[in-house]
Amino acid sequence: MNHPVENQPSSTPEKRRFPWAVAIVTSVFTIGLLVVLGLWMKQSKVTSLEIGVNVPDFSVTTFDGETYTKSALEGKLILINFWSSWCSSCDEEGFALEEVWQEVKSSGDIVFLGVNYVDTEKDSIAFIEKYGLTYPNGPDLGSKISRIFKVQAVPETYIIGRDGTLAAIKIGAFESANEIRTLLQEAGQE
Amino acid sequence: MIANIGFGLLVITLVTSLIAVITAVYGVTSKTRAMLETSRLAALSTFPLLSMSVAALLALLLSGKFEYVYVYQTTSLSMPVYLKIAALWGGQQGSLLFWCWLLSGFTFIVLIRKWKQDHDLLPWVIVVTNITLFFFMVLVLFFENPFLKYYILYNGEVITSLFQPFHAITAHPTDGSGLNPLLRHFGMVVHPPMLYLGFVGFIIPFAYAIAALIEGRTDDRWLKATRRWSLMAWLFLSLGLILGSRWAYDVLGWGGYWSWDPVEISAFMPWLTGTAYLHSMVMQDKRGLFKHWNVALIILTFCLVIFGTFLTRSGLFSSVHAFSESQIGPAFFIFIAVMFVASLGLLLYRWSSLSSNYQIKSFFSRESAFLYNNLLFLAIFAICLLGVIFPILSELFTGQQVTVGPQFYESAAGPLFALLLLLMGIVPLTAWSTSSARNLGKTVWKPALLSLVFPILAVVLSAKNWIAVIAIWLAALVICVTLYDYIRSIRLRAANHHEPLWKAFLTLTTRNRRRYGGYIIHLGVALMGMGIIGIEFFQTQTQAMLKQGESLDLSGYTITYRDLQITDTPDGRNVAKAEISISRDNQELKVVYPRIDYYYDSEQAVTIPGLRTTLADDLYIILVDWEPVTSEGATIKVFRNPLMNWFWIGSIVAVIGTLLALWPSTIRKSIAKEEA
Amino acid sequence: MKIKNKTLLLVAVAILFSCFATPVRAQEITPTVSDDEVNRVAQQLYCPVCENTPLDVCPTKACAQWRELIREKIALGWSDQQIKRYFAEQYGGQVLAVPPLQGLNWIVYVLPPLVVIGGIYLAITIVKRSRKSVIPEETDLVPSPPPASETVMEQIEKDLQKEERS
Predict the structure, then answer these.
(1) Is B31 left (phi over 0), alpha (psi -120 to 50) or beta?
(2) Exposure check for chain B: N or C terminus, fewer CB within 10 A?
(3) Would you say residue C19 lies in a domain?
């Protein structure tokens, strides 16, 4: 870029002409970029929803066509389990979850919701039948629910307390039905 | 013991680089020679110190001391020696140390060679290089230490630590986990050091530019002193990119060489600004123009180099998310931000003193062509930056995740690359200062006419895509114009000096290495362009499940699945190798052996293609495991990549051209004393 | 007469049967979807789970399932557009190779042409300003000095210019 040089034998002091246009444009752009990147980095550090935070409303429509909305279930303990048919760890907890569900479903106070994460309908239904899951299971359309809970991988389980805030998190497969019972109890006591 | 020495040396280097910075600043501001000498010695000594530390790490790698975390993660007993050496840069910690070693080495060379001539600039060069070195050493020492060991605590837990904790014993794994099988390719072994040589190489001209800004120098000294550094850095960066592409072509099994993913782009962006810088330098050299451009471009290149160093590290991070999710991401972010803002501030402060006494006189002159060149490269860079940043913006402001794929880059940057080809074709024939469109037309029309042969040929060979035909014409234009000018000059010289043509060619080339080196590089780039046009516009592919003996057809070729062999190799792989015959018009052309290597230890499969390469096209055949590969039937995928080989040929030509341009000129040295 | 009638009867029966044959054929045979067709669509999509991996080359089990899903949809007669839209609805916009035309995404489509226009504007402005700039008397100042002696190159340039003028 050439700016006209007004008068210049190099011995006399130059008239300082500050490049205002360039300075403003580059500063705005740089600051904007840095702010955006900084915000993004801070946001990415939060890898999961925090316990005690109010969980935003969402709804799941099961493969059978029923819809469950979080706000409609207020006052109940909600266990949300994210799973996929192609995830090998999910196989480990399928039976355990159904077992505990059979125990708690009569109380009417606890709800199990299975959210199918990024999966195909055919294989998901096969998975449900394989483990005889009777609690509601539905696909996460557009991955919206996974985004609320900041799901990084499957399986992950979240328990929403009766007051609508997040009470417990389990990353990875449950090792036994007992583990599920314990987690439910702890969450229910809050 | 060795590790302790290695680690201790790292600590000493950290302190030494800090001393170098402090004494350099103090020495310059107070004009104390003793201080300056101390800073010089401190900066110099970082190199032998780091060399010994690197040697220590190498010793650990070669002797298979798997109690060291880094040795465990990057080597295994069955690895050949050359891969164990390559493990030095195979993992995060080692590659960062390697990077530091390169920086200290380059600083060493500059200090040894130039202390006398540039004694006013070099203290600031020490400051810049050693601040960078200090930053990276902090990362190595406190976040990514290669000398960590595995220890078993009293409760059975295994931890990693530098020093032995209480009540813990050293763990002794019997074997390492070895290198990711995808990385066991020649290209992948050489590609990281090439990239790093390129990245670190650009730090030297940057340091000189900052030094010149601080000292208020308005002349070309910093540019002339680092001209060869810039060219060398560019050479290695280009080689790194090309080798990475070759690796992708050979090993990833995607049928292509470049997929516009953020990691590739982060290494490509400094190449873009670096290439613009190399060209723009010529203008400052010959006409004193573009001083602001050159400083701005080298600042950009430096920042992009630091960003690229982080992101390209292992080739296994394929997203920008790696930047934010790792521990050292924020540190890099702050470093780049500080350096960029400080450098930009300096440039703005010195802006008016950098003006030139010359002017661009015409829209069609060589000077304006270089301006367009700068603008085009910057525009392509801006588009790449947009593509990388946009998913971040989207996630931040709308919570929506989006992918910006190759289609975006190709449509947005494609026309700009075409314009660059046009410039490459026309500029050798532009004149300095004044040129009108008519003058230009007069000189260009002959080779331009000749170049039309290529697109016409393409159309005759039934190419229907008019964009591709234009692109072919542009690449051909570069080739024809460059050769035309080259041959014309040779003949002129031969006539004037009564020399045989070959002698004229040699004299001309060796006496004007920069110019003709440049011509040869452009020829190489145009050939690469032909290869890119071939594969991007005219690639055909097909896939089918074949039983033994069956064949499929693609673009006139018949590909027959003949046989399959499944074996277990002694180095822990299960290899399914197919015998595939390629024929055309009932004549067998070649037999190739695509295979799938399944590595037991890492449970990963690598697809190796069977390749038939000619100048006209590549036939790229892979085994696909959508269904299991058995001797009854296997799924075969075939790509036909027209003109692909010209990409690799062109890259070799470009490298030769660069080496020529780099070659030290003994004649010039005696003529112009200030030559680097 | 009798033979003629018989032949006519045979022909009539044959025609009758052939009329039934065609509809039956259409019901029995469903055209199999080739791998190429699956690839054609998969190439335009990205794996919902792995980052930056196109669906046709992704090696995971999940991707194999998704390719099968594509195959089913093609067999049902869905167009490429419909399949892509289905995937985006199911899994989110990141499976598409270019950001869908909604919300903030117009930026990605609008900025590149703006960059080009900006570049052209800069080119014109800079050259114009440089042409207009006043250069001080050449007597005091020397522009960047040419190399100390006339190089071979300059000789060639001179010769070339001479040749051009002739």
Answers:
(1) left
(2) N
(3) yes
Query: Phi first, then psi: what are they for B179, rounded to 5°?
Result: -85, 145
Within a domain: residue C139?
no
Average pLDDT over residues A57-62: 90
- What whole-number distance in Å separates Cα of residue B35 and Cα of residue B41? 10
Contact A4 C66 (CB under 8 A): no
Q: How far apart are CA B44 and CA B48, in angstroms?
A: 8
Interface touch A22/B348, C-beta < 8 Å = yes
Q: Please give the helix or strand (H or E) that residue A97 lies within, else none.
A: helix A88-104
End-to-end alpha-carbon separation of chain B, Å? 43
**Cβ pair C148, B671 in contact under 8 A:** yes
The listed range with the strongest mean pLDDT (A37-51, B255-269, B352-366) is: B255-269
Kindly report the nearest CA distance between residue C26 and chain A, in angstroms: 26
pLDDT of B141 higher than 90: yes
Q: Span B170-193, mean pLDDT?
A: 82
* Pairing state between β B158-161 and B149-152: antiparallel
Tokens linked to B631: 């001797």
Locus of tokens 């246009």: A21
Interface of B with C in 234-273 (CB under 8 A): 252-254, 259, 261-262
Tell me the count of B-C CB pairs closer than 8 A.
159
DSSP string, B452-503: THHHHHHHHTT---HHHHHHHHHHHHHHHHHHHHHHHHHHHHHHHHT--HHH
CB-defined contacts A:C, below 8 A: 53
Classify B625 as helix, strand or coil.
coil
Residues of B in contact with C145 (CB under 8 A): none
Domain range enclosing C113: 101-130
Helix B203-215 / helix B186-201 crossing angle, nearest 10 deg: 10
User: According to the model, what pLDDT value does residue A42 have?
Assistant: 83
Domain boundaries, chain B: 1-176, 540-646
Kindly list the residues from chain C whose CB atom is less than 8 angstroms away from the CB atom of residue A141. 89-90
Q: How many domains does chain C have?
A: 3
pLDDT band at B580 (very low <50, low <70, confident <90, very high): very high
Tens digit of each residue's pLDDT (9 = 90 or more) over C33-81: 888 999 999 999 998 887 788 898 888 888 999 999 999 999 999 999 9
Any C CB within 8 A of A3 CB: yes
CB of A120 within 8 Å of a chain C CB? The answer is yes
User: What residues in B contact A18, CB-CB < 8 Å?
Assistant: 348, 351-352
How would residue B462 be classed by pLDDT, with cut points 50, 70 and 90?
A: confident
Is the residue at C51 inside a domain? yes
Of A2, A37, A44, nearest to B325 by CB-CB distance is A44
The verdict on a CB contact (< 8 Å) between B358 and C127 is no
> Does residue A75 sit at the C interface (CB-CB below 8 Å)?
no
Q: Coil, helix or strand for B542?
A: strand
User: DSSP string of B265-295?
Assistant: HHHHHHHHHHHHHHHHHHHHHHHS--HHHHH
| pLDDT mean over A89-99 | 87
**Pair C41, C78 in one domain:** yes
**Residue B181, preceding peptide bond in cis (omega within 30° of 0):** no
Q: Which of A31, A40, A141, A151 is the mutation pick for testing B, counting most B CBs within 10 A?
A: A40
Q: How far is B620 from chain A (nearest CA, A)?
A: 31
CATH 3.40.50.1450 for domain A59-189 = no
- Residues C90 and C107 grouped into a single domain: no
Quick one: how far is CA B673 from the chain centroid? Answer: 33
- C153 CA: distance to closest CA in chain A (Å): 27
Q: Given the cut 0.95, state whether the ipTM is greater than it.
A: no
Distance of alpha carbon B448 from alpha carbon B462, whole angstroms = 22
* Whether residue C57 is found in the same domain as residue C67: yes
Are B67 and B38 contacting, i.e. CB atoms less than 8 angstroms apart?
no
pLDDT beyond 70 at C15:
no
Greater confidence, B535 or B440?
B535
